[in-house]
Amino acid sequence: GAYYADREMDNVSGSLYPAGLFHPLYGFIPGPVPDYTTSTLSDEDTALYWQSSYTIESGLTLTGGLRYQNSDRSINRSNSSNSVNSSDDWDDVLPKLGASYSLSETDTLYASVAKGFQSGGFNFYGGSPESAQYDSAESWNYELGWSSSWNDGRVHTRVAAFYSDFENYQVYRLNPMNPTEAYMVNAEEATSYGVELEAEAQASETITLSAAVGLVNAEFDSYTDNVLRGVLGPMAAGYEFGGNDINFVPEYTANLAAHIQLPWNLSMQWEVQGIGTYWLDEANTAEQDAYALVNGRISYMRDNWELFAYWRNLTDEGYSNNALDLRYTDYSNPAAPRPAGMILHIPGWPRTFGVGLSASF
């Protein structure tokens, strides 16, 4: 197969600075002074891919795949103090190998290894060359699992273990020097591993139940934020994050769901999501406690049209999507307590309701 995508994104951000007779920069200028940053990012992606499987009579199936991807990125950004005009491209060859073995008509063992790739790119924000560009990320991903069906195929279960080894892992973070900005930066090395368990049961002709649990450990093996190192110089020892847990990766996830088929082409789904404790920053100073979200959806289908209504976070659970530790840091001794300042939290979505219309062709 083949894949092609072309995208262009425009962004304008900035502030109005008050002016006046005694303003150190804008004195004698009547009215507020605007300082805007305008940016245009252009992305172009092309890929060629192939995958095929071969089944041996003994019940062994071998799968092989190969993907070539090329990504072109460019940025044109300017403001009152500087400008960045740059372009770059990244490409990679991504192999995949897999095998599955049928122990019986209901039980299958499988294993796979695959290479992953995320293109590099440019940030909307950040005036320095260090913060403008980030590199592509690569990973090797390994999985071993067992799937089974029970009760005449009405119950399906799966258990799997996985391990991933990352190079130039991409981290999206807020800028401590300006909390209104965010940028992408690379962590040199990272690893993650864990297990997943899933089950689905046809409880009746109209009700399907499902459950899933995932346990994961994810860690930065080597990570220096070179954007902040470039700003702070030798003091940037406080931005060595090797050995810390990867932020935004919960220690566990859980899901319970029920899908109910109703008369008159109606259906309803209820879902409870459980999210374990996770860190909101690479320094592992701002922590989000475990929480649960109740979501749901009701839909009406007719031919290839669907009209639906949904609700998310029905109990209006409070949680944070991101955070930035703004407490005072002694960069000569980063491990010292930081009593002054605050931790800035960006809240997650509150209770939300919506409607939608979709069509498939």
Helix/strand class: mainly beta
Helix content: under 10%
Oligomer: single chain
CATH architecture of one domain: Beta Barrel
Low-pLDDT runs of 5+ residues are none
CATH C-level category of one domain: Mainly Beta
* Terminal CA distance: 20 Å
- Which fold name fills CATH's third level, the topology of one domain? Maltoporin, Chain A
Question: Count of helices?
Answer: 2
Strand-residue fraction? over 45%
User: Mean pLDDT, nearest integer?
Assistant: 84
**Largest beta-sheet details:** 14 strands, antiparallel
Beta strands, count: 20
CATH homologous superfamily of one domain? Answer: TonB-dependent receptor, beta-barrel domain
Shape: globular
Structural overview:
With 361 residues, the protein is mainly β. It has helices at residues 129-132, 226-232, and strands at residues 2-17, 33-55, 60-78, 83-102, 107-118, 121-122, 133-134, 137-150, 155-175, 178-202, 207-222, 252-261, 266-275, 278-279, 287-288, 291-302, 305-312, 320-325, 343-347, 352-359. It has a domain at 135-359: Maltoporin, Chain A. The chain contains 2 helices and 20 strands. The strands form 4 sheets. It has a 14-stranded antiparallel β-sheet with strand order 1-2-3-4-5-8-9-10-11-12-13-16-17-20. A two-stranded antiparallel ribbon has the order 6-7. The longest helix is centred in the middle third of the chain and has 7 residues, at 226-232. The mean pLDDT is 84.
